[in-house]
Each structure stands twice: as C-alpha cells, then as structure tokens.
Specification:
Elements: H1 4-24, H2 29-40, H3 52-72, H4 75-80, H5 82-110, H6 119-130, H7 134-143, H8 150-175, H9 180-217, H10 222-242, H11 247-259, H12 264-289, H13 292-297, H14 299-323, H15 328-337, H16 343-354, H17 360-382, H18 384-391, H19 395-410, E1 417-420, H20 424-435, E2 440-444, H21 447-455, E3 460-462, H22 468-473, E4 481-484, H23 489-502, E5 508-512, H24 518-523, E6 528-531, H25 532-547, H26 552-564, E7 590-595, H27 607-610, E8 618-624, E9 627-629, E10 642-647, H28 649-660
Parallel strand pairs: 1-2, 1-4, 2-3, 4-5, 5-6
Antiparallel strand pairs: 7-10, 8-9, 8-10
Helix pairs in contact: 1-2, 2-12, 3-11, 3-12, 5-6, 5-8, 5-14, 6-8, 6-16, 7-8, 8-15, 8-16, 9-10, 9-11, 10-11, 14-15, 14-17, 15-18, 16-17, 25-26
Length: about 650
Amino acid sequence: MASGLELTLLLLGSAVLGVVLFRMLHLPPMLGYLAVGILIGPHALGLADNNASTHALAEFGVVFLMFSIGLEFSLSQLKAMRSIVFGLGLAQVVATIAATMLFGLLLATLLPPSLHVSWQAAFALGGALAMSSTAIVSKMLTERLELESQHGRRIIGILLFQDLAVVPLLILIPSLAQKPTELAATLGWASLKALVVLVLLLFFGQKLMRKWFTLVVKRRSQELFMLNLLLITLGAAWITEKAGLSMALGAFVAGMLVSETQYKHQVEEDIKPFRDVLLGLFFITVGMLLNVDLVLQHWALVLLLLCGPVLLKFALIAVLAKLFGASDGVSMRTGLALAQAGEFGFVLLNLTAGAALIDPFIIQLVLASMVLSMLVAPLIIAKSDQIVMKIAANEWMLQSLQLTQIASRSMALQKHVIVAGFGRSGQSLATLLTEEKIAYQALDLDPERVQEAQAAGAHVAYGDAARRESLVAAGINRASCLVITYADTASALKVLHLAHEMAPALPVIVRSHDDTDLDLLKRAGAAEVVPEALEGSLMLASHALVMMGVPLRRVVHRVQEARDERYASLRGYFHGAGDVSDDPERMYVRLHTVTLRDDAGAVGKRIEELELGSVGAEVTAVRRGKQRLETTPATVLDAGDVVVLRGSGDAVSRAEGRLLQ
C-alpha cells in the first residue's frame, strides 16, 4: 500500500500529464482528470487505491466548488433571468426526475422482483442524471462566443438552476435510505435541521461577515486574509456536517455570505487555486470508481445507459425550451449542450451509493455511462450547428431570414464600415461614424442589445461576423473598412481569414487587449491593431505631460510617433509576480535588465557584434551610472552598464546568456 506522500505524488504527477495532454487536444482539463482516474485506478493499472484518504481529500474539492457557486449566487442575476432559471430550469430538473421514476416504474412491471428499482432509488438516479456539466458547457460556449446568444442564455439559466437544485437534493437523498414508515419523519427532521442551520448562518452570519472581513482586511496581511477565507469555508462546512447535513451545503451558504461583501472578487481569485486543484482530485477519484472490466463485459448495457439518458435529456430540454418560446434551432442547441452528465451528478451518485439505495452493479453501469457522456460532450457541442441543420426543417429558413435582414439593411450601402461587435467600443465607433456622416453596418450576437439598438435607430443586425454568410450579407465586397471591436484573438483570426479570402484589399482594424498578439494579428492580415492597454498608456502619459507643462503640439507629436512605430517604444514591460499569464502558451514580449560584470563577454563590444536579433531579442536602452545612453548598433558596452533587453521570455534568457558569457 502506497504511503501518503507516494499517493499524493502519484495523483499530482498523473494529473499534470493528463491535463497537459487534454489541453493539447483542446479539451476541458476535467476530462483529463477523469481519464487519469480511470487509468491509475484499482480497476485498470491499479497504481492507486480508492480508499477513505483519497475520498476525504477529494470531498474538499466539492466543498470549494459549492463555495464558488455560492459566490456567484446573485439575487439580481436571478431576477433578470427568473423566467429561464425558475421556469425552464425548474421544469428540466423536475421532468428529468419524473421521467426516470416513470422508467423505473415501467421496469418494475417488466422485470423480476430481484431487479426492481425502488422509487427512492429512481428519484436519486433522476437527480443525478438531471445535472449537466457547468465546466464543459460554459467553456465551450465561451470559446464559441455563444454566451450571449439565445440558446446560450437558456443554457446558462438551466445550469444555474441545476446548481441551486443540488442544495435540496443533498438533503433529500440521504433521507431516502430510511424505512418507508420513518421516511416522512426523517425528511421532516432533516428539513427542520437544515432550516435552523441556514437561518443561523444567514441571519447571524450576515451581520458578522462584513464586520469580521473588515477587521481582517485592516491588518493588511494577505496571509491572514487567506487563512480567514479557509476558516470561513471549512468552518461553515463543519457546522452543517455536525448538523447531519452535507459539508457542501455549508460551503454554499458561506459563499453566499461572502458574495454580499465588497471582498467578493478578491475572494474569487484567492480561492480559485484551491478549488481547481482539489476539484481535479475529486474527478480523479470519480474516474477511479470506474470498473473497466465491467464496462467491457457489459458494453451493451453501458451503451444503452449512455444513449438512453443523453437522448432523453436532449428530447426533454428541447421540448421544454420550445414550450417556453424558443425556436426549433435554439431548442435543439440548448438540448444538445445539456444532454451530458455533470459534476454534481457524480456527487449525488456517490451520495446515493453511500446511502445503499442502489445495487453497486447498477451504480457502476450508470457511472460508466456518465463518464462517457462527458467525454463525448465537447464533440456534440462542436457539431451542434451541423446536427441542427440536418434535423430542424426550418433552421435554414430562420438563418436565411436573419441574413436577409442583414442584407436588406446593408443593400443600399456603398463604401461603408462593417463593425464586428456592438458593445461599448462598437457603439462609440458608430457614434463617431454617424457624426462624420459615414455609413456603417454593425453585427452583434446579443439579441437584446440588437433589439434595443435597432429601436434607437442604430444600423445593427443580429449576426456572427466570424461566419462567411454574415459578412457577405453585410456587404463585405462593397465595404471600405472592417473593424473588429471586441478583444478576442481567436475570433479575430477567423474574421481576418474570411475577410482576406473574400475581399483581399479590404483594410481590417482589430482591437486587442495588449501587445501580446499584435504581431500574430498583423501577420494574419490586420491593417492596424489597436492594443487597448498601450492606447490607455499613451492617453495617460499624454495627459500627464500636458499637466507638467509640456506643449500640446509636442505631446501630440510624441503620441503619433509611438503609433507610427507600431508602439515599438512601448511594447514589452517589466514583469512582476502579479503578471504571470493564465495561459503559459502565450509568449509575452517583456523587458528585462542585465548588469554587465567586469568579466562579462559583452564588455568592450559593440551591440551589433552581439547579434542579439538572431535569438529574437533587442537592446532598447543602456544606462551607464546615472546617464541613459542614446543607443545605436555601434554603442560600445562597458563594465557596470545596465542593458535593457526586449523580447519573449526565452529570447531574453538567451540574450542574457550571450551578454554575460
């Protein structure tokens, strides 16, 4: 049996390899955790045991996940989406549980008594199957720029209700294991305890939380803030556990309390590492539960349990979305996105297994089908457009109608500007174009924004600029310019590819967050790239210079000079601890200083002799004592000089080695 340290190293090493592989395949890391758990579990390679220690560690992942959901619990958000959340979301969960119970009742009439599934077991299974994967779906919607689409809003609303529905299910499922004669009393007692605990936490906790956090923050210690955060999360989980309820319920309430304070966003950032790592370990333990031999022996049953619930959830959600006013295409996209199992489905299934409501054999089959459904979910969502086009008879007509509306608005336009995205930047651009009497046609994917803007007289239509048909309808071949106003490099590259293919001479202006992808976008065909971070720096500097008495003409000249140089003098910056990129694959241009020792190889050499350009770096400045030298290729370096390098992280490291060797 492996020691605690060996088990921890095994889990961490396997998790790293799994996440790296799945990120290379552009799949959610959660699927990597599940695959790793299956591989190293007792039913495959047998490298790790599915024991109490791993379960105890993994349970903290669920605790921090519920805490994060509590942080996001917003009464204003619920109020804005109440018809979707408490209408469509409630109907989906109830309908899925009811359908599962009905199916269990049907089986009872067909199968021998030894294989009957009780209504309690069917209810618990229905609750687990009603959940969908927030992690997978939200990531896919974000990457596909569909969060604000009609189906995207419905999907997020249903996911939000599913998260809320977990709270009562965490109370109900353990109570279902009681004898039928004691069930009512058990449920009543559990509900009473939950009510008392929640009232105590919410009433007294609400009064104490703000004062306590303010007291802690005044100490100005990040370490104390983090310790306090862990104490509150785990303390609330301990209170509910001692009351005979779920630890996750207490963590959810703690998150709700913290969300009402002004420290919510700081807490979200601080808790993220704990949540993601521990939740990853939870998914590894879920994968370890999967008996691969059992799946292979009963592959037909597993396939049936995979296809059955997925098709059932797809049909239920699509029909319900249709009943709540969605079109056929929107209904089907909503159903396809939510047809898979979810994170909380595993939590509820583990709770069901612990309560001995279902035979372990059935638990294994259901678990296998849930894991497989999550593995295929990204593929289903990626192909949802093609699936809907083939199934929905009127989808082509609706999309054609949208394109016709765009075309009818832009048909009379010549030499106009196509504005991709009608957010704040797009609307500001449209205002200036209107004042200059320049025609424009904007495309946006937020239906409410489009409707309101159209009512106000703006020339905007619902459409995706990353689709060829939308650009054609907007008159790309007659346009004089295309402006991408949202800072999303992946989508901008798609638009640039289409624009270059359909109208090679059309200038395209792209907005970006910073200078990270400036060269990439330029190579893709952008005529101009406007990094908002650098433009903000220019505006800040220009106002500061004017305030210091520098003539306005000179300030304008310096700003224009920086722009003409493609921001060369501003690109790159000295990185600090807070500047670590979330995505290590992105190579930020950075500045780095190197002090030349007496024995440095660059001492006595001209900058051009060092050939730093061959390693992708350049010298932007040299400081000698208190003097900043005018740097040219012929500048001779001396001992004690401070050389400022610019380039990617790797390039700067290689250049530093060349200077010092």
